Amino acid sequence: MLSLSILAFSPAAAQWIHTDGVYGGSVLCLAAKGSVVFAGTTHGVYRSEDNGTNWTALTGGFPDITVWTLAISDSFVFAGTDGYGVLRSSDLGNSWSMVNNGLLNTRVSDLFANHSTVFAHGDASLPWRWRSTDNGVSWTRFDLDPDIFGFFKGGDSVIIGLIHYGPSYRSTDNGTTWMSVPVYGYQIARMGNELFTQGSGPFFFSRDSGATWVKFADYSIGAPGIVSNMVSCGALFIGVANYQLCVSEDSCKHWGFQTGWMNVSEGLPYNGAQALCSNDTYMFIGWGSAGVWRRLVSEVTSVNPASGQLPMESALEQNYPNPFNPSTQIKYNVGGTGVSAKGGCASGAEGRGRSNVRLVVYDLLGREVAVLVDERELPGSYEVEFNGGILASGVYVYRLQAGSFAQARTMVLVK
How far apart, in Å, are the Cα atoms of 218 and each of 111, 323, 373? Predict the structure, then answer.
């Protein structure tokens, strides 16, 4: 087998390290289990057992073919290929065998594994979806929706089947039964108990394993396109939009090429990001034909003084339009001098820490009718949408609590 070692670049690009490996054409997908990282390429699968320092081409029963997708369950590694269906390894890639009993698709572009249940789909000429409940030993076709882009974990037995333009589907029994959910997107990223996704425009989040979703932005502010691939790292999100790497510090509300203190792409060669994954120690990026790059998660989530202008004081603005029917926008600021919350990447350095922020709508009897925001947020300006479609006409109160700051305003719903 071909062994490969790491190549370090100049100190100016020391944050991202180019791993001198994966000489297998373009890197199309990545997956990690602890310090073991797998890279699917246009010429098979590569493996690193030391967080990307050294790579080995896996040739034990694996043909020289394109690998579109990788998935790791409790005991197996699965590879979705172009022409060979699904291959499976029970020894972390040392040996592989085809597991295609009942699987008619030989071009598998997406795999998802949740314990012993595995989902697969691929060739557009066979628009079915496939499920295995025995780690790939046998497959059964299910006719859910031909437009499902991929399957993602929403909870222990909760699976989300995403469609780009929605609605999507949700199962609470590992794919035995499904129901429609009003969300659409390309990929789900998780931070704590929250799920995030972006579809053809809007961003959505869920706090109940995908049962209900809230649209909180009409598009990815500051990103060069749709953020179709993203992972959470501490209190940040790292995403790929239009093959460019970008970052969000405020739960996907705003995106940019750098945080207040660092350029997230420093040291990378050019726009070509295709795959992302992370473990507790490193983030890994598949950069097309440029191979795999890695960076310490601690470098990205470390707190440093912010540059640029931040709001000095928290404030709640009047909603617009007002009166409204049924939706209105609410803008607010989280001040840079407020009390910081502990946890995540927060600190009090130069007002850089997060504040506990809560934005709630009440009726005139003081009853809570909607919670629009309930999270820790960095100093900055924010905007959320409130939809009163299920409420009666009348006057409502919306109240912002940000650290020790509190302010309330009224708005009028007219139907």
Answer: 29, 21, 16
User: Once rounded to an integer, what is the mean pLDDT over residues 244-265?
Assistant: 75
pLDDT value at 130 more than 70: yes
Give me the torsion for CA of 321, 324, 325, 330, rounded to 10°: 60
Kindly report the CA angle at 184 between 179 and 187, in degrees rounded to 5? Answer: 105
Minimal CA–CA distance to 292: which of 270, 271, 279, 273? 273
Reported for 406-412, long-range contacts at CB under 8 A and 24+ positions apart, including other chains, are 407/314, 407/315, 407/316, 408/316, 409/316, 409/317, 409/318, 409/319, 411/318, 411/319, 411/322, 411/323, 411/324, 411/328, 411/386, 412/322, 412/323, 412/324
**CA 54 and chain centroid, separation:** 27
Flag whether the pTM goes above 0.85: no
Tell me, rounded to whole angstroms, the distance of Cα 386 from its chain centroid. 24
pLDDT, position 125: 64
Q: Mind listing the pLDDT tens digit for each residue in 315-349?
A: 999 999 999 999 999 999 887 643 322 222 222 22
CA–CA distance, 283 with 305 (Å, rounded to integer): 22
Return d(Cα 4, Cα 41) in angstroms, integer. 15
Q: Which helix (H) or strand (E) holds 118?
A: strand 117-122
Tens digits of residue pLDDT in 347-373:
222 234 567 889 999 999 999 999 888
Residue of 257, 276, 289 lying closest to 26 (CA atoms) = 289
**Cβ neighbours, 10 Å, residue 116:** 16
Name the residue with tokens 């034909």: 289
Written as six digits, the tokens of 405 are 């700051």
Structure confidence at residue 124 as a pLDDT band (50, 70, 90):
low
Write out pLDDT tens, residues 371-383: 888 877 777 778 8
Residues 174, 168: Cα–Cα separation, whole Å: 15
Helix (H, G, I), strand (E, B) or coil at 131: strand
Q: Which position has the token pair 């394993």? A: 209
